[in-house]
Amino acid sequence: MGKKVLLIEDEPNIIEAVSFILSRDGWEVKTHSNGHDAMEAVRLRGPDLIILDVMLPGKSGFDILAEIRGDLEFAEIPVLMLTARGQMKDREMAEKAGASQYMTKPFSNADVLAAVRDLVGA
Amino acid sequence: MPERLMIGTRIRERRVLSGIRQSELAKQAGISPSYLNLIEHNRRRIGGKTLLKLAQALEVEPQVLSEGAEATLISALREAAGEPGVDGPELSRIEEFAGRFPGWAGLLTDLYRRTQGLERTIETLTDRLAHDPFLADSLHEVISSVTAIRSTSSILVETEALEPEWQARFHRNINEDSARLTEGAQALVKYLEGAPNRDAEVQSPQDEMHAFLAARGYHFEELERDVAGPRDVMRLLKDEAAQAMSTPAQSLTREVLLRYLADARALPLGPFLARVRTIGLRPDRLADATGVEIAQVFRRLAALPEDEVGPVGLVICDASGTLVFRKPIDGFDMPRLAGACALWPLYQVMAQPQVPLRARVRQVGRGGEVVGALAVAGLAAPAGFDRPALMQAHMLLLPDPGEASGGVHELGVSCRICPIKDCVARREPSIIAEGF
Lengths: 122, 436
Fold this sequence. Notes:
The complex is a heterodimer of chains A (122) and B (436). Chain A has helices at 12-24, 38-45, 61-70, 88-97, 109-120; strands at residues 4-8, 28-32, 49-53, 79-83, 101-104. Chain A is an alpha/beta fold and 122 residues long. Chain A has a single domain (4-115), classed as Response regulator (Rossmann fold), CATH 3.40.50. A 5-stranded parallel sheet of chain A has the order 2-1-3-4-5, sandwiched between helices. In chain A, helix 4 (88-97) links the parallel strand 4 (79-83) and strand 5. The radius of gyration of chain A is 13 Å and the shape is globular. Among the domains of chain B are: 2-110, 434 Repressor (Amino-terminal Domain) (Orthogonal Bundle), CATH 1.10.260.40; 133-194; 311-436, Beta-Lactamase (2-Layer Sandwich). A 6-stranded mixed sheet of chain B has the order 2-1-5-4-3-6. The longest helix of chain B has 31 residues, at 164-194. The relative contact order of chain B is 0.06. Chains A and B meet through helix 1 of A and helix 9 and helix 10 of B. Chain B: InterPro entries: Cro/C1-type_HTH, Lambda_DNA-bd_dom_sf, TransReg_Diox_bact_type. Chain B: Keywords: DNA-binding, Transcription, Transcription regulation.
């Protein structure tokens, strides 16, 4: 494996837990914790998969996703969106913005692992 | 043909009401009594000339007979009936129902309208709950800590041979997150318990600060003494009531008290009260006489003891329109969470800084009284090359100065609870404008 995942999330303890389970599963995990320069982080890290929180300081996850999809290089990259709100509207917005998959907090570690494996076809 | 048929019933009712005998009406209309009898029992169709003659004789508009006064009632009943179902109301007999039981039919349509109004109100309230920023923040906090706890705890349970360092770290994280979860859940409970009662339960830090100021009557003797200094502000913040506030509320209160101190130094209590007694509650004159900004006079007037100057209200907003300071006055409501009515003089003066404005205003709706509003906008913090000038507007509220001061402008509290119709300043629908 050794695939690279970029986790964009602002809660330090969620970052730590998700990084841990993904690293144990053989992923190379990079993290980024604010919205302002998330796109720069994407370009810098060049990940195989992005896990993106909807509620970020500085910029909404939906806006970041739009930027990612707007960049030719990342137009097809799998993006797993995380949100604290399970409302249909958010789900629709995520789909419209081009999320590959959508997960509601709180999630189980097994679900996250299954989702990322599924998205990268590992 | 129920609608046509019911014309007869209406003719009969009109005739009986007017106290005319059947034979007499028949004679006036130029038809035989037996024919009129058949018409009145809806057994003959009627139209054209006969209808006109009967209407003339009964001294009513022909439409009243042909369509009935209950035309609107019938359309309302149709609306109430909704989509025809198998066991639904007998739509074919709607005219008969409205004609024979106008009172019951009216009651039914009233109930239907009331139900619709209540449904709208519920929708709006639900919507408000869903978009309540405080609630959204608290929930986000709770969900975030739960997510972290769930993920971390399952790592602890499921990972075989977890290194002691990691173990210690995750234990610490869980401990941290559970403390956060507790705080978030408590804030939520406090908020929800406080929600139905506007005044009893404190909500945001701003509310806490205002409750603290209100408990002291917005007047602090400790800061009025000649030797008063920042130390006295710190002392005030150490008292029991201040310590009971949350940290953010304490820091807001400190800012407000420091400003109070600066105002009190610029306009010391004794001399200022003496001037108010000779000049009266005229902020512009007081500003001239003392050489300070009108806004500072406003704040000082609002800080005077009520037994000296009577009720004085004050509201301050920043450039975003957010009310950052509220000292209420009877008969004029100030919203706590939502933005205030854009018609307030407070917002008008933002367009012309340093130009004061005076108006008699009244909030439409329950409990609104005419009050005198004096407003002025000005610089709160100077601009730099890297930041904009920060503006603030002040609005002083005094009891009604009387008709000599001009006409009364009607305005609202906040759009959601405002009954004014066709208002150009409306930014969202009211939950009470429509409905019953």
